[in-house]
Design goal:
By secondary structure, this protein is mainly α. It has 2 domains: 126 residues, Peroxidase, domain 2 (Orthogonal Bundle), CATH 1.10.420.10; 198 residues, Orthogonal Bundle (Peroxidase, domain 1), CATH 1.10.520. Helix content is 34%, strand content 2%. It has 12 helices and 2 strands. The chain has a two-stranded antiparallel sheet with strand order 1-2. 48% of the residues are buried. GO terms for molecular function: heme binding; lactoperoxidase activity; metal ion binding. Its EC number is 1.11.1.7. It catalyses: 2 a phenolic donor + H2O2 = 2 a phenolic radical donor + 2 H2O. Its main location: secreted.
């Protein structure tokens, strides 16, 4: 096998490309973290694992990466404002300090064991988390199974390729916590915490996770198709998916960098390597050696839909900035990867991240803090499910 062939893998996994998208609150408002559960403990406020300021970008007074005048930027976690909650319910870093003090260690130990045995866990959970948050907020609605009353959003076409291992680890953590802290911890908080821990575990940045979400009371299959971008969408439409939720272009590019881990099924990029056009069998924007290797790998994709390739052919299991370096060299699998590298609105940001991993990590961490509090349910707007895959009440 030549050197190109060695960078591909054959995997029969039930998830496709890890196209990362995100969104943020309408305005970035720095507020003092408030919580009805008390102040954050020293452990929850530990210093994050990456420097606070990128090397190639000038520092603002607080060390944040500056944005242009028409872009907003938050460097602090984003507690829900009081007018967004009923009865003074807020998210906090130490929400379970008294009610379930073993919450953090239970999640951390479980994801460590799972990731150690199944390396695909990290990208799977990360993608599951984004799909959940994008559809109707970070509320674990994507975990609910369909029943005789209605079909859940997890059965929507864009979600059919989500990782089975991702669902499994969230359910396993929930079952463990129900034995030690019954009726206390939400599935949506488990997803948020597990995602952060897995990102850090595979080399990514540490970021703070606010807790206190409730689980949704509904799940909507139609919203999934309406909300989720597709890799074949023009860049204008992809950008609109983000900006319509108050998410700026720089943050979109940063979150798309999660393509640095995970896999893509061959049927998602087969049109780029087989019968591309009347004049070329292969998309000419693809690196020729990559295209040749993909053609060999995916030659039987029509009969075996489990065939897939690494998103990042250089360091597929490590969270780093190689994805951005790759797409500038024609080494991106998806049409959207190529578009990101050539569009004049996104290419300058891609170039910054390709040169400077610290800049990417700082921006990714800040964007994840924003994503994780999108339209969360608190108070009477949600519940603590007994099981993550079903509501406490039967009908949807």
């Amino acid at each position: 096998m030549d050197s190109v062939g060695k960078i591909f893998a054959y995997h029969r996994l039930r998830f496709r490309d890890l196209l990362i998208w995100g969104f943020c609150l309408r305005e970035c408002t720095r507020v003092k973290e408030r919580s009805s559960r008390g102040r954050a403990s020293p452990k929850s406020l530990r210093t994050r694992a990456v420097p606070s300021t990128p090397v190639l970008i000038p520092r603002s007074p607080k060390g944040a990466v500056p944005f242009s005048s028409n872009q907003s930027r938050c460097r602090e976690p984003h507690p829900l404002l009081s007018n967004q909650n009923r009865g003074g319910h807020h998210l906090s870093l130490d929400y379970y300090k008294k009610t379930c003090p073993q919450f953090e260690s239970t999640v951390r130990d479980a994801v460590f064991a799972k990731q150690s045995s199944v390396p695909a866990t990290a990208p799977g959970v990360l993608r599951l988390f984004f799909h959940d948050c994008l559809i109707d907020g970070c509320d674990a609605s994507i975990l609910v199974s369909s029943n005789g009353y209605a079909r859940g959003e997890r059965d929507a076409v864009p979600n059919l390729s989500l990782s089975g291992d991702a669902f499994e680890i969230i359910n396993k953590i929930k079952n463990s916590l129900e034995l030690t802290c019954p009726g206390v911890v939400s599935c949506s908080d488990i997803m948020a915490e597990a995602t952060r821990d897995l990102v850090k575990m595979v080399g990514g940045p540490y970021y703070k996770v606010l807790l206190g979400r409730k689980d949704s009371l509904v799940t909507n299959i139609t919203k999934a198709a309406e909300s989720l971008p597709e890799p074949e969408m023009p860049m204008d439409r992809i950008i609109t998916k983000f900006t319509s939720r108050g998410f700026n272009i720089r943050e979109m590019v940063a979150l798309t960098g999660a393509h640095t881990i995970g896999f893509t099924h061959c049927n998602q990029f087969s049109h780029r390597i087989f019968n591309f056009s009347a004049t070329s069998d292969v998309d000419p924007t693809l690196n020729p050696k990559l295209a040749a290797g993909l053609k060999r790998l995916c030659q039987n994709y029509t009969t075996d839909n489990g065939m897939s390739a690494f998103n990042d052919v250089r360091s597929p299991s490590k969270f780093d900035n190689a994805y951005f370096q790759n797409i500038l060299r024609g080494l991106g699998l998806l049409t959207s990867d190529h578009a990101l590298s050539v569009d004049p609105r996104t290419r300058p940001i891609v170039e910054i991240y390709a040169r400077n991993q610290t800049a990417f990590f700082v921006d990714f961490a800040a964007a994840m803090e924003k994503v994780s509090v999108l339209n969360v349910k608190t108070g009477r707007k949600g519940e603590i499910r007994d099981r993550c895959d079903q509501f406490n009440h039967i009908p949807m």
